[in-house]
What does this fold into?
Amino acid sequence: MKAKREYRDRPTTEVAVLDALVNRTDDGMTVFELRAAVSVSIDDLEEALATLKDDGLIVVETGGPRTVIKPHDRVVPDADDLAEDESWVEWLRERFPL
It folds into this structure.
């Protein structure tokens, strides 16, 4: 599953982080899990996480034995968003980024 369309015009690393988090909405992910899922340097990941947190698009939960990062509810697509068909232009744009 991907983050909502309105959050897809961000830098590549931020979009990759949001997509990874949307796929694990309930459990969240640790920084190490995100780094493995996104495959970027720790510095790039740290920068992306800082920006996403400043923009209110992620939530950091520190309770329990580990710190997990989750997407904000507004980033997670609902059933209506998932049911929408992609236009062929969007399909091309995602496959061949400019």
About this structure: The CA atoms of residues 60 and 69 lie 5 Å apart. DSSP finds five helices and two strands in the chain. The two ends are 22 Å apart (CA to CA). The longest strand covers residues 58-61.
